[in-house]
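Reviewers of the previous submission asked for a worked example of the structure-prediction workflow described in the proposal, so we include one complete record here. The input consisted solely of the amino acid sequence. No template or homolog information was supplied to the procedure at any stage.
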Amino acid sequence: MAICFAVEVKVELTLLDKEKEVDLMSPNGKASPFSECRPNGSLGHCSDEDTMTLRPQRKHRDYIEASVCHVKDLENGQMREVDLGAGRALLIKENGEFFAMGHKCPHYGAPLVKGVLSKGHVRCPWHGACFNITTGDIEDFPGLDSLPTFQARVEKEKVIIRANKQALQTQRRSKAMSKCSAVINSSTGFSHILIIGSGPAGLVCAETLRQEGFTDRIVMCTMDKHLPYDRPKLSKSTAEQLQLRSSDFFQAHDIEILLEKEVVSVDVKTRTVTFRDGFKMEYRKLFIATGSRPKPLSYKGKDVGNVFHLRTPEDANSIATLASSKNAVIVGTSFIGMEVAAALTDKAHSVSVIGIEAVPFRKALGEKVGKALMKKMGNYDINQSGVHMDAKGFIPVNKIMQTNIDGVFAGGDVVTFPLALRSNKKVNIPHWQMAHVHGRVAALSMMGKASDIKTVPYFWTAMFGKSIRYAGNYILLLCFKCCCQGYGDGFDDVVIQGDLDELKFVAFYTKSEEVVAVASMNYDPIVSRVAEVFGSGKTIRKRDMFQILHCIIFPYRTGDMSWLIDKGSQ
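From that input alone, the workflow returned the following C-alpha cells.
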C-alpha cells in the first residue's frame, strides 16, 4: 500500500507424585495443565468478590484455591469472570461440566467473558482468536500464545478452582517447544528449513515447527533491522513497543534470525538461496513469506526528506517526530492511511487526506459507514526462481501452502490461496490474522501433517479511540496504487442497526438474501458471533439478522451459539 506523507522469575514447581496426579486431571477426566507463562500487564475488568470465598492453602504455596460460585449460578453455555484473590480466571460451563482458564486474550488483552462460547472453544470479542476450553491452546488466530488452564471441581454444590498464582498473573503461556538436536555451526550455509520473511506467517511457521517436535535447523532471514514486530500497530506506536518475541525467546528455542539479509535469488534446482552480500544458503524446505511492498507514486519531489512510505518502525518514528505541529498530507484512503490520519490529528497542525474516492472505505464498508467515519476525522521479485507468479505478482499456492515447486511453500500477503468460504476459489487476503494461519498450515505441511485452511477472515482497524471489526465472505482493502487486492463478489445492500453519528452500530452486508459479512463499532461481540456461524459452514439469511441482535440485547443468551448456528443453512 502506498501512503505518502509530506510534513513541514521463572517459577520451578516440584510437586509430590500424589499432588501431580491431582493437578493433571480435572474431576471430569479432562487434562488441566499448569504451564509456564509470560507477563502481559494489568489484571481483568470485573470481580465476583461478593460470592467468592478463599480457602486456606493446603498444598503447594504457589497454588491457590477458591470457591467461586454455586453450581446453579451458571447455566450451560455461560461464562463468568471470577476472582481467586491472587488473580482472575474465566469460569465456563458447557455440557454440564465446568472449565477454568485465563480470562484475557493474550493477543491484545480482550476480556474473554465478553466473547463467544461455542462447541468447546471461546472466540475473542475483539479480533476473533479462538481458544480450546479444555487445553487453553490457541486454535485460530491472531496471536502467538495460548491460555493457562486451571483445575475446576465441584464440592458440596460449590465450584472450586485451583490455580497456579503465576499463571493467574501472566494470563498466557507458550506451547512447549522442542530444540534443535543437530550440531551445526551458525555460519554453516545449510538449513533444513529456511524462512524468507519475519512477519506473522514466518514467525508462526517457525514456532509451529518447534511445537510439533521438529528438531532440525530453522533459519529465518529478513531485510528488517528488527526482530519480528507487530506491524498493524505501525500507524499508532513506536518501534520500541512493537516487538513480538525477544532475542532470548529465539535463542531458547533454537530459531535463528538473520537480520538485514536481503534475498536476491532462489535456485530451486540446487535448493540454494543467494543473499545480496553474496552469502549462499542451501535448504531442504523453503517458506516464502516476504509480505508486500507499497508501490511508490511517480511525482516530482518524491525523494525529499519529508516524504515517507509507511512500512518500517523507522518510518513510523520519523512520521511521528516530523509531523508534530506541521501540516501533514496523506495520499491514500486505505485503512492504514486513515489510521495514520486519526493518529496525527492531535499531533500535527493540520491533516489532509487525498484519495480517489469521495468517501473513504466506500467499497469495503459502504457509503453510509464511510461517511460516518469521515466525519471524525511491490512484491518481492523471484521471477527467475521458477516459482510461478500470476499476472498481479502474487504466488499461487495450494491448500497446504505449497507452490508449483516441490519443497517450496509460501504464505502471507504475497500469495493467493484457496479459501473454503469462497468454495476454494483462490484469493489474496493481506490481513495479519490470515498470515498467522498460513504460517501454521505451511509448517504442518512441511512435517507431513497437512491441514487445510479453516478460518474466517477477520479484520480490524482503530481510529479516534474506537475500533471497527469486520468478518465474513467479502473483505476489500482499499489500497491506493498498491499490490494488495481484496476479494469477493461484493454486496448489493447494507443493513444498518444502531447510530452512525455516535459510531455505535452494526452493519450487515448482504448479497440477495444472504449475509456475506458484518462490521461493527461498539457492538461487541457481534462480529465474533457471526464469524462463529460462518466458521460452522452455515449461511445467515437476512431474516436471521434480528435474532443475532437479540442475543446482544439479552445477555443471558450470549453464551450459547447453538440456537443461531442451527438457524443457518448449509
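The chain has a mean pLDDT of 80. We consider this example representative of the routine output the project will generate in years two and three.
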